Amino acid sequence: MRESLGADPPGLLERLRAGEPRAFEELVIAYQHRVFGVALRMLGSRAEAEEIAQEVFLRAHRAVADFRGDARLGTWLYAIASRLCLNRLASPDRRVARGDAALADVPAATPDAADAFERAQRDAALRAAIAELPEDRRIVLVLRDVEGLTYDEIAEALALEPGTVRSRLHRARLQLKEKLEPFA
Amino acid sequence: MTCSDTRELFSALADDALAPGERDALQAHLAGCAECRRELAGFERTLRRVRAMDPGRAPAGFVERVLAAARPEPWPRRLARRLFVPWPKVPLGVAAGLLIAGLAVLLFRGSPEQQVAARYEGAPPAATGEAVPPAPAPTPAAPAATREPAPPPPTAARDTAPPAATPPPAAAPQDSAARQLDAPKKADAANQRMADQRASESTGSKTLAAPEGKGQEAFGEALRAKREPEQRAQAPAPVEQFANKQPEIAPKDAADSMSKLRRDAPPPVGAAESQRRERAVEPDRTVAGAARAPAMAQVAPLSRTGPMTGIPAVPPDVTAQLRVADPAGAERALLELAARVGGRQTGRRIDDGRVAVEVAVPRDAYAQFVREAAALGALAIDRQTLASPTIRTEIRLEPQSP
Q: Taking CB atoms and an 8 Å cutoff, what residues of chain A touch B16?
């Protein structure tokens, strides 16, 4: 799980609003992995994830002048990324097969020579189980257990009540447990 | 607290989000329920596995690609897009009519033989006392000029006339027609567009929120810039689509408009001689049209069936050759086949006189696609990688040697 979302880099929002090109570059550098990670876990394809992640930053670039700053920049970017991913998943044009090899191109975190095969099998089962979660539960699980957001940050990013976040997250975890028990 | 109540709190327990009262009740239940303890252990094991996942890292060069996509578009491209994008909103028939009228005026003014011929044709009405407009409008002049080629070189005007879709002559007649229709308004609009263009040029490179950076159009610009050929280009950019489509659509609409103009035009006034000449010229046109038809079919036979783009620089997953007797028919059949198995056309190019089409086919349907494609002719697969969920397949159509 990623470290929790910290405070925005000091003065970054103001510099972005002022149109400073270097500030936009800092924003992309600071949040590229987080935004890409959400898209990758939601969509399962590195190519599609990169496309969506680029789109997130371009939208932020365009809209930052109107961003009120009620939320942190990181939460705002997660909100844009989540919305774009859910829209993409709902798009009838999306022809990427769901559930089969989704997320299969994500490399394992620590390939170990001793039990590489078993680990690979478990990782594949985990990725497949996440890919099979309903999208509204998957996004909550990804934001909480992969990206490390708090319940309140998730609620803010997805415009949900905290109780809804808690309930969806719990259902997602239970569903994963059922699917993964045979591989335990 | 029941077992069910207890298990509902597992997530909150794992996230340390329980109220003190809830936590105590949960611990009390767990102390006396081995089944719930086992469930909790399984739940925590699953959670540990999810949290141990690699969260994913953006690929190398991602920052540079984003910055490049966010950079303002170069001014020549922006200018070209602003000039060409509004045109599709004009009904194609009207645009083609204006184009032809403008061309006809140019030809009429440029060819002394035709001016002589037109004066000759115009004489009888004046002689019979019919009302003749003092300054003929360009549109009626168009059919007259094309219907009545000047006698000395009867085919010269047709042969030297530029094709309707060729950009350089197209711009001049449109300007000319626009001047004659509502010149002041359009000139103001054009000036305004150019002024906006200059303004955005001067500020676009210096500010993040450039004028063109607002609204959906700006995002489209950014995306178009992002889909440069040197980057991964899955879908054709709208500008490219239009740029490719325009010359293909124009000839048909131009021909339709031409025939409509011919139908709507007043009959040649007392010109039996000119009718005789027209009948004599008509077979020439048919023969010339028939001679041109195969060439047109080879260049763009499927302009209205799918995106007409260059095939992206990224190598496809599969490259193959299909040797067939009828490449044009095979191309249609391939596109229909791709659509039937859930795929779509993603590119097309002419390579050394051969058509190469690229289709994206779902991996699950790829085997069926290959089976059915092989039934169209002799299929030879040069290279094949089936790692992606969507298989981009480029097929070069080779005519079968007799």
A: none
